[in-house]
Amino acid sequence: MSTIVTSKAQCRDCYKCIRNCPVKAIGLKDGQAWVVEEKCILCGKCIVVCPQQAKATASEQAVVEKFLADGERVVVSLAPSYLATAFFSSPWKLVAALKALGVFRVEETLLGAKLVAAEYGRVFRKHRPGTMITSCCPVAVQIIEKYYPNLLPNLPGVVSPMVAHGRLIKAQWGQDTKVVFVGPCFAKKSERAATKGASAIDAVLTFEELKTLFTAQQINPEGLADQLPAESVPRLRTFPLKQGTLKAAGIDDHLSADVISVCGVQECMETFAALSKGEIRPQVIEALACRGGCINGPAMDQNLTLPARRARLFALAPVVTERGEGGKGEVKKPEPAVDLQRRHTATGF
Description:
Layout: E1 4-6, H1 16-20, E2 26-29, E3 32-35, H2 45-49, E4 55-57, H3 61-69, E5 74-78, H4 91-101, E6 105-108, H5 110-125, E7 132-133, H6 138-147, H7 161-173, E8 178-183, H8 187-193, E9 203-206, H9 207-216, H10 244-248, E10 259-263, H11 265-276, E11 284-288, H12 306-316
Parallel strand pairs: 5-6, 5-8, 7-11, 8-9, 10-11
Antiparallel strand pairs: 1-4, 2-3
Helix pairs in contact: 5-7, 6-11
């Protein structure tokens, strides 16, 4: 199944998606605009710019509803951008609604980011030859796999924070635990589906899809008392911002020609092209497909500007403590060893 689908009834032949696709991955079929799957990098631009809302990703809301109806143990991995979303009056209403929904536990994906950042730091300090390109952003990874396969050896072979957190959760609470990732990125759905073997993530929802789920279950987040995530990593609060990965990995003090941070699909592609041609030879490239970082993801609400989202994140960050709910009945299990390895393969067309 395609990750991005087009509604025949709603597509009005405006071709705005064709004009805005950064990799020209949209073609015409029977007079309507359809995504060419093998060229698509899942940046979500076509979904955002469509005035008729003719493009969308396949929702896994029904999958999550079935988990809950069947009494499965569901743990939510909440992307750090949740602090910057304006879908709810505060992020604590979002957490409270998840608990009201019946999930067993709500944790921040930063727990996985902590593991990934430590691994990046280890690789960086080894001073291996060549350039390391961070692989947290699934869109940046797809750009390399589809358009710059010669750079595959530059990827460190490390999973994303989402996958790392999913593996951590299953190691702590059992492999039968259902892990649901909630965040601002459409490409995470493809990343989950592409996982070989037993997936660390069982479903992916965007913030907007989560809001729809609350409505379907007749849960009003605004009427609930605030709740915090069970666990958090406050020192990594800037992870979803540009240079956030570098800072978390302890590389931020080395910003120079040897360390490059790029964001936006165009800037990523220009940087990858320059690296391919030998025009640049940095030690590290932090690559983020969204301008300003993940807080500007395509599935974020469009009511706030990027500066407003940054301000919201910094204003709310101090509220979350290392233990979140402060141990109110929550059980903190020992952190097991987690396999962070991943293989990248060329998927060119």
